Amino acid sequence: MATVIATKGRHPPARSRRGESARVLRLVDGDRPERRSAPASGEMVPRPGLVERLLETAAVPLVLVVAPAGYGKTTLLADWSRADARPFAWMALHEADNDPARFEKDVSRALERVNEREPYVLVLDDVHVLRAAGSADVLRTLASRVPRGSQLVLASRGEPPFQVARLRAHRALVEMRARDLAMTAPEAAALLALAGLDLAEREVETLVAKTEGWPAGLYLAAVSLREQTDRHAAVDRFTGEDVVVAGYLRDEILGRLPRAAVTFLRHAAILDELSGPACDEILERTGSERVLAGLARSSAMLVPLDRNGGAYRCHALLAQLLRAELRRLEPGTERELHLRACDWHLAQGDADRAIDHAVAAGDLARAGELVWASVPGHVWRGRAAAVQRRLRRFTADQIESQPTLALALAHTHLAKGELGPAERWAAAAENAVLARAGGQDRDSLAAGVALLRAAAAREGLDQMLAEAGRAYEAEAEDSPWRALCCLLSGVAQHLSGDREAARRSLNEGVRRAAIAAPHVQALCLAQLALLAAEEDDWELAAGYAGRGRSQIEHYGLAAYPASALVFAASAMIRAQRGRVEAARDDMRQAWRLLRALYDFIPWHVAETRITLARASLRLGDLPRARQLLADASLSARRVPDADVLREWMGGAEEQAAAISTSAVLGPSTLTTAELRVLGFLPTHLSFREIAARLSVSANTVKTQAHAVYGKLGAASRSEAVANANALGLIEASVV
């Protein structure tokens, strides 16, 4: 007979790689097998955590251990057998077991060697070889008749040949799969050390990530690294294309699959996520969902990505080998597959993967178009980092050769407050556009360059307005870029003194940017708030500033340096309306952002600094206001035709001079609490009523009010209001 009985004290049978039909039946107790100098596939690295989990399952009749080759299934069960007091009967299955009669007979003989009146564990290894319906029926019957206290263990590279859902629902099943058997970094370090490799912690973690904790992969990595002189560099280079790993994968994984399945995997491996619809469309075939499900049930190293079997991915090392094989065997097919994948992912709304496939196909023009199309929806919605990640896929030469990529990079620099790099890449984009023969996209790209020129306003406000208008006309009616055109036109008109035209442009910008470009909308609202403040309509100004600030907070745009103007406008208006603490919070945020604008658009920096200076004056911080005005004058000089900036500067400087020549203590020494009380002095509220609003005592308000009188050189409440109004600290009409 083909069955061999092992006496108690011997370890489980060695795995045969030649496919001979010999099977081994063994009884194992706590004796430890002899350790070899170099472990194979991690089999001598103990897994105490997993063994403990198995020891805790003694009352569960069926144990299912499913994982591809090289995950140490047999080794784990051997470790369990050494820790468990019950006798273990081992049976390694082979093709001959697809004869139901023979399979049933051999199982019966195995059980004869066990005292069935006492608890035992029967291990059936390589269950994946069972394909015959009759043998599956025998196995199903065996699983349903496990005596109390005993266990049946099925170790397999694929799913068992019968349904286990009912057992799972009744908690009559324990499952261990590849994710459970994957090695942790400490376990991998032990395996690598046994293999003669002493690697740094970072290098071990790198190998664990590359192999996804696959024990065989880690051992094969060790074999490969031992043969290389620079092992540390070899760790970073290690992939599934390594000759040692590739040989194992071909023999143990791909070599056991039908040729059609291997071809399917080779083509599908260009995808990060394998699903039936994606593979059908991209591979131009049908029935992919069924093929994937079959491969997942086998030993093809497919990792499920959901719980319903709708999506999978190849194990990283296998995917690398398959992609290398595709490049070698079918280079033309590879590019065609990537282009189809680009179109499919784009249709699914996944621009990142579409760009990846366009790059892999070598279609830089297509990749550039996709990156450029994503700029408004990302840069203006607080996700500039996503565009930057996409751009990191390209070299500087590739970006320079594609105007779309150069423009995208220019706009990400602009969002970060870096005008110099933005202008350099805009110039590169312009050169690339001029090199094009023509076409509709040429006009659109030229408009993108014009917008960057308009933002920089190097040649004055008239040129800024003209460039913004040119870009507006070149873009389609529904283009998100028109919102930015409106913002730049409105700013140019405002700073030139044409306030009515500015209002129209900015309101159009608010409307166009409402959904497509929230950051542009926030800047339009901030500019409208400054317009309203100029006209002393503080209620309207507060509405605009509040809406702009809400957009910044809602879309997570508070870290964008250009948002400094939004916070500055909010600070000035809140200070004007007596909301001192809120104004100070806005001041701090604007100040932090302003420091990042070391090389930014002059008009934007000047506006922000002057607005912050005006807020500082209303908050009684004369030194800060003077410093801001001094810095603002440097920025304003770079926009010589901005008459409104000079008006703002002049008014703020006059206010600062008036404050500096006021009473001995002066308003600059007003505390936050005193400024809050000052905001209520123009009203008809009594000290008791003010105290109720501020949640303090009437005596506290009275003390703070008299301190305000003294610092403003006033003898009464009405005189304090008049002096504060003259200094621009409050408006007499504030309620």
Question: What would you say this structure looks like, in words?
Answer:
The structure is a single chain. With about 725 residues, this protein is an alpha/beta fold. Among the domains are: about 5-180, Rossmann fold (3-Layer(aba) Sandwich), CATH 3.40.50.300; about 185-240, no CATH class; about 515-660, Serine Threonine Protein Phosphatase 5, Tetratricopeptide repeat; about 665-725, Winged helix-like DNA-binding domain superfamily/Winged helix DNA-binding domain (Arc Repressor Mutant, subunit A). Helices cover about 60% and strands about 5% of the residues. The protein has 37 helices and ten strands. The chain has a seven-stranded mixed beta sheet, sandwiched between helices. Helix 18 (about 365-380) packs parallel to helix 21 and helix 21 (about 405-415) packs antiparallel against helix 22. The longest helix has 18 residues, at about 500-515. The radius of gyration is 37 Å and the shape is elongated. It starts with a strand and ends in a 9-residue tail after the last helix. Residues about 1-10 and about 15-45 have low confidence and may be disordered.
